[in-house]
Amino acid sequence: MAGAPAAGAPVAGEVLARYLRAQATEFLRALRQHRESSTEEAAEPALALRAAARRISGTLHTFRPLLDAEWSDQLRAELAWLSGTLAREHAHAARLDRLIGALHRLSPAGPVVGRAPAVPTQNGGLTVGAAKAGALVERQLTLARTRAHSTALQALGSSRFHAVADAVAVLASEVPLRRDASGHPLAPFAADVEARLNEAVAALPLVRAGHPYNAEALLHGLGTDAAPESQDTPWHQVRLLLRLHRYAQEAIGLEPGHDVRLIGAGQALDRHRDAAEAATAAASAARTPRIAPATAYALGVLHADQRHDVEAARFAFQAVWRRNASPDRAVSTP
Amino acid sequence: MAGAPAAGAPVAGEVLARYLRAQATEFLRALRQHRESSTEEAAEPALALRAAARRISGTLHTFRPLLDAEWSDQLRAELAWLSGTLAREHAHAARLDRLIGALHRLSPAGPVVGRAPAVPTQNGGLTVGAAKAGALVERQLTLARTRAHSTALQALGSSRFHAVADAVAVLASEVPLRRDASGHPLAPFAADVEARLNEAVAALPLVRAGHPYNAEALLHGLGTDAAPESQDTPWHQVRLLLRLHRYAQEAIGLEPGHDVRLIGAGQALDRHRDAAEAATAAASAARTPRIAPATAYALGVLHADQRHDVEAARFAFQAVWRRNASPDRAVSTP
């Protein structure tokens, strides 16, 4: 037990600093591992890098009054740029996987992409449409992914990135706390985030989402493009607040798995986001000039299928959320 | 109370004969009303005519051993021809209503059919696609409906039809019961139908249907055309058995509304059938040669939307059915 912390709660500032140092160290570890990886192996360290960046950024945001504000805001902006740049490649790859998976479900077993069926059936039009839609989506998303990969590599070699890494290295050794920070308890800041989360969830149409097959997610799906996306926005917002809440809980010393509901709710909202983006990608592929009607038809089915999954994710979210609807869970104070 | 039936249960044969006479009389009444109606007013008597025809046909089937078999089989075949012929016009009209209603839900409020949006939006492609899809579906289903209308008029003027009407007129005055029929109780025949219904329901994938958003109805939706239809077949079969069961219950003297579950279950399966047929019509419109990709895309979304409603109808059916899952309801014996 040598070197164990002295008994008695550590002061608030030290709890926060310890969390930020740990995340900064994780960021630097993931960065080192990413540099030493081949392209194929780089996905996992890239994920770890983004996870650490999100945690640092979220913590700087939640506990902003305890930190050097100018320095924090500056670092947060740069971390957002970095996460965004690194996320894009992964997002295109995940979207492609999701859409190809859906096309496999929608057309008979066997490879779809880039291969027309060996035996033309009486209704070959639809099957060929699915194959062509798969090939089109693959071409477009692979191109987007390759571009995102180049952009990410460029970013990681840029002086802007080196400045971010330097700032995180500073954070790993010395957190720029305000002089009066140690006197403040952390719990009220975390509670603020939780209150904002609960408020945002309360504004969601959860009753409607709890009625299976309400057909809401496809409402106006053939209108202007903005229509379905605008109904998604509050859900995306809750997803971000939920993450911010989870990081705040971690920062004040709660176990990551202490609230199973948060994990289930987060997974449902990740699925919501993924399905919404896949649906948009299918609609966008359908606007490619000079595609065959059968291809466009398959993309329409695919779009609607993904919008159904958006609705399914909302149903899953409300089920998780309302299961423990009146917990009165108090945030523990470290 | 003069003319009230004597106390004590009437013999089985008389119960059956009374029911058949009543339905035959209703058939003749609806037929007379249909002949006196203008085209616009003819829909309601046509519905009543088909309802009576279905009840007569179902009763002849269920209680076949009590009736002159050859005569019954002959009349049933002719009633099936008549109902089928009369149903088609109504079915095309209902399908069109359903699809146009869905397109209204899928694209912004305002008329869709045959009118492009006044102000072309940035994403006008999709909106125009919805308008064109609506116009195409309307053209095709209106044509089909007009043809069905002519066929129905022709049928109603044919000597074949007059023979059916004559046979029903016979039924209205004298039901061709077998001589030994009056000794047989009716309940076992009705129980047979119920047993067949329960067996068919037990073979349905109700557990899966009870999981909302199981995405089953779109499974292989882009494969050969037969794929989704083949998964619908057992549900359509249950729909017919449920109807046969309801008519058998009526024939043995139970009130039509005595089992609320049957009504809800029947409505869910009607919706299942309507949505499945609308989905097929959308897919079939998408195979029209030389349509624009935006039109095909809208039809793909529409097809998936209707298949989604197929799934919703299955969910509704299992909810109604399982609500009173272990009733051990015995068929009352008249």
TrEMBL record, chains A, B:
InterPro entries, per the entry: CHAD_dom, CHAD_dom_sf
Domain of life: Bacteria
Domain CHAD: 9-326
Record field: transmembrane: none
Name the record gives this protein: CHAD domain-containing protein
